[in-house]
Sequence to fold (334 residues):
Amino acid sequence: MVWTPLHAKIHRTIRSRHLFERNQRLLIAVSGGQDSLCLIKLLLDLQSKWGWYLGIAHCDHRWRSDSQANANHVENLAKTWGISFYLETASKPINSEATARNWRYQALSAIAQANNYQYIVTGHTASDRAETLLYNLIRGTGADGLQALTWQRPLTTGIMLVRPFLEITRIETEQFCQEFKLPIWEDSTNQNLQYARNRIRQELIPYLRDNFNPQVESALAQTTELLQAEVEYLEKAAQQLREKAMSWGTGDEKDSLTPHLPLRLNRRVLQKAPLALQRRVMRQVLQQILTDAPSFEHIEKLTALIIAPNRSQTDPFPGGAIAQVEGDWICFKC
Fold:
C-alpha cells in the first residue's frame, strides 16, 4: 500500500477528533464521485490499522437517465474490493435537493439499523463546507446556519453520521483519485447551473479563488469550524438562561415534549442578558411552541417584549398562540 500525505492526514484526524472507535462497523455512502471514491479508498487502506468492518451504501434518486448504470458501477467496485454492498432506490424520481437529502439520510439510517452499522460516513469536504456557508449567507442566516456540516452528529439512536473530510478540499480528492486511477463516475447534474449550489461551486468560488484568496475554500471552512464551537457555547448559555427565566403554569408540562400553555418568561432575568442570548432564548422557546422552525421575525417580535410596556403583545404566531407582557412576565396564551 502506498502511504500518501492524505492517508496520514485522515489517520490523524480520525484519531485526534475521536471520530471512530477501533473494530467498529462503518457504512460508507458512495455516490461514485471523486469525494466518495477517495473516502472509501482511504478507509480501505486504513482498515488494517483500525480493524473496521466496512460496507458501501448507494442511494439511487432516479433523477438521471444513467442513475441505474451509476448504481451498477458502484456495486461492481464493492465486489472488486470485497465489500458488502447495499442499494436503496427511490420509488419515484426525486428532483428537489432538500427532499433528496432527507430521503438519502433516511435510507442510509435504515440500512445501518438493519445491518448493525454504528457509523454512517460521508465524503463531505472543506469545499462543501465553504459552499454551504456561502449558500446560507446569501439566503440569510445566523451563526447556526453558517456553521453547518459538523464533524459528527447522531442520526438515530446508536448511529452516528461522521464526516472525516472537512479539512480536505475537492482539489485534493481529485488529485488523489488521479494518483490511484480510481474510476470516477461523473454526475452530470453537478454541471447544471439551475441549482444554486452548482453556481456557487462552478462560478462564485472560482471567482473568489482567482480574485481574492487562492485558499478561499479552506479559509471559509476554518470560519465554519470556529463558528461551530461558538454556537455550541451560546446554545448552552442560552439554555441555562432560559431555565432560569422560564416558569410553567402547572407542574407537569415542563417535562412534556409538546408542553401546554401557559408558559411564562421572567423579563427581569432576561433583561440582564446580552441581546445575543435573549434572541437564542426566544428561539428555543418558540421551537417548543411552533411546529415549524421560527423565523427571524418571530424571534424579533418576541424579543422586543423583554423591554416593552406592560400589556404589550404580539400578533398570533403560527398555530394561534400569542405572547403578552404582564408586569415582570412574558406570558404565552392560546
Remarks:
- The first strand starts at residue 25 and ends at 29.
- The radius of gyration is 23 Å.
- Residues 275 and 303 are 9 Å apart (CA to CA).
- The beta strands are 25-29, 53-60, 84-89, 119-121, 152-156, 159-162, 246-248, 263-266, 322-326, 329-333.
